[in-house]
């Protein structure tokens, strides 16, 4: 218990960073994933190809590689920086934002696939009715199909979010101070690996378990009755 | 897949076809502009010179860096896939046990290891093995990677196995019982062989996850393909090309496995239907193939 009180502040800030990474990447991935899903079902062949290529590339590349690329490739080689260069916390901020970028582009591929599966579950008659009312492709997607598709993919999107929470630990590869980085230093410095391991295991169970329950409940609650 | 476009838009007439063509050109032009900007940026940073890319045409950079890395990735992935299959089969069957203690113990194990990030498992296993000197120092990182991947993927596979067995019609068990078979015999000779058919696609996409996740070994110092690419990059001073090449290698490896998965699935869907006595409904590859299955999402559709 000494460990817990000694490291309490660090634990809180590390897990808060995990939550921040997850939340911000989730927003980014949702936006990008929705656009990609729209492209993949659009009538324009070139847009469909781009969507397919994106999903194939990012789904098959390890996240570790993507995040390392964001740091080594984008920042160090290409000089892309996502934070004001002259601020005192430039390196920290920049790494956090690069990690969020990496997590977002990776997760977007999975969001896109979930959404596309969801669009396929919407009854054909819905879109047909929309079309016969004279709605264009964009209107049809926005007003008729996507609202129903989103409701049917709440549970799958929930598991994507849980996976994202767990994947955010990989941000430690470019030195973002989140849970796994703290765990690494704690487990090396303290002679109590089972206590340290237990703390972090419990931390992630606390983060992911309610998420799973909530999304399961929401998925059932908001299911489109057919 | 092909029926899907007609859901959202009509078969295009001449006007719409022209419009689509126009939009196609517009998107292609936008893509070209982005491509050109990326090219300009790369060029201005000197990333397209032959010095940056020539290391990949020399055999030494492959034999010293990339090939050992690929071997590391494949060894870790293969070991953890085999071990995870064994662990998954044991846990999955244990979750269907008649004894409540075994059932809930297996359930707890499965839920726990699906909730913990693989990286956390690896860091823990690494320190555990180091403290108690379970493995030689040389194999420490490999052992930690394999342990982490096995525990996580084994738990996911346990859920797949459970869903596969539950998807079989009840009559199979009942008929076997009526013939006087013991529980273990029913499982071994009746249920498992049939369930494997339903599980195979989901199992193979879990193997893709294991292969991809072996890159996590980077963080605990295991030499796999990402690490070797990064070392190559620092040796030749060409991080960006090196990482792109590694990405291409991983995409090829994973696509090959995915292709195998779709092949197998197709064969099982079409080929077996005529002959097999029972066709179990395919186990849903929960929502997103390739993504880690997590939480309490995989609902067993029996």
UniProtKB/TrEMBL annotation, chain A:
Compartments (UniProt record): Cell membrane
Any one Pfam family match given in the protein's UniProt record, by short name: BPD_transp_1
Entry membrane topology: Multi-pass membrane protein
Domain of life where this protein originates: Bacteria
Signal peptide positions on this chain: none
UniProt record similarity statement: Belongs to the binding-protein-dependent transport system permease family. HisMQ subfamily.
The protein's name: Amino acid ABC transporter permease
Native organism: Rhodococcus oryzae
């Amino acid at each position: 218990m000494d460990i817990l009180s000694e490291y309490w502040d660090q634990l809180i800030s590390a897990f808060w960073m995990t939550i921040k990474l997850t939340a911000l990447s989730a927003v980014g991935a949702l936006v990008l994933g929705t656009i990609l899903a729209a492209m993949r079902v659009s009538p324009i062949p070139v847009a469909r190809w781009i969507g397919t290529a994106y999903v194939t590339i990012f789904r098959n590349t390890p996240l570790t590689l993507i995040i390392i690329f964001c740091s080594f490739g984008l920042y160090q080689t290409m000089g892309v920086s996502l934070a004001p260069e002259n601020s005192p916390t430039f390196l920290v901020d920049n790494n956090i934002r690069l990690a969020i970028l990496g997590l977002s582009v990776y997760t977007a591929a999975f969001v896109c696939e979930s959404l596309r599966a969801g669009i396929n579950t919407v009854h054909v008659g819905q879109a047909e009715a929309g079309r016969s009312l004279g709605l264009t492709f964009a209107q049809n997607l926005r007003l008729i199909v996507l609202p129903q598709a989103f409701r049917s993919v709440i549970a799958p999107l929930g598991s994507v979010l849980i996976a994202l929470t767990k994947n955010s630990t990989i941000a430690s590869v470019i030195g973002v101070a989140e849970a796994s980085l703290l765990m690494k230093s704690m487990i090396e410095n303290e002679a109590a690996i089972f206590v340290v391991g237990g703390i972090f295991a419990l931390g992630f169970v606390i983060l992911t378990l309610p998420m799973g329950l909530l999304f399961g409940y929401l998925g059932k609650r908001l299911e489109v009755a057919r | 897949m092909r029926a899907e476009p007609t859901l959202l838009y009509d078969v295009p007439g001449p006007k719409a076809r022209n419009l689509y063509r126009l939009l196609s050109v517009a998107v292609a032009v936008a893509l070209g502009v982005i491509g050109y900007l990326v090219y300009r940026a790369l060029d201005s940073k000197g990333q397209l010179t032959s010095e940056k890319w020539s290391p990949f045409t020399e055999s030494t950079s492959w034999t010293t860096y990339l090939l050992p890395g690929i071997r590391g990735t494949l060894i870790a992935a293969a070991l953890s896939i085999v071990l995870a299959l064994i662990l998954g089969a044991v846990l999955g069957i244990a979750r269907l046990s008649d004894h409540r203690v075994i059932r809930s113990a297996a359930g707890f194990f499965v839920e726990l290891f699906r909730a913990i990030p693989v990286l956390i498992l690896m860091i823990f296993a690494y320190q555990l093995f180091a403290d108690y000197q379970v493995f030689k120092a040389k194999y420490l990182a490999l052992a930690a990677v394999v342990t982490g991947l096995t525990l996580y993927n084994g738990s996911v596979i346990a859920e797949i196995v459970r869903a596969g067995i539950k998807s079989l019609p009840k009559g199979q068990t009942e008929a076997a019982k009526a013939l006087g078979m013991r529980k273990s015999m029913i499982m071994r000779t009746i249920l498992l062989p049939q369930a494997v058919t339903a599980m195979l696609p989901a199992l193979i996409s879990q193997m893709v996850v294991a292969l991809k996740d072996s890159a996590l070994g980077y963080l605990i110092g295991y030499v796999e393909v990402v690490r070797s690419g990064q070392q190559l990059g620092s040796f030749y001073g060409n991080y960006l090309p090196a990482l792109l090449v590694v990405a291409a290698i991983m995409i090829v490896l994973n696509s090959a496995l995915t292709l195998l998965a779709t092949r197998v699935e197709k064969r099982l869907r079409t080929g077996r239907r005529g002959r097999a006595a029972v066709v179990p409904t395919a186990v849903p590859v929960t929502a997103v193939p390739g993504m880690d299955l997590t939480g309490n999402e995989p609902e067993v559709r029996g």
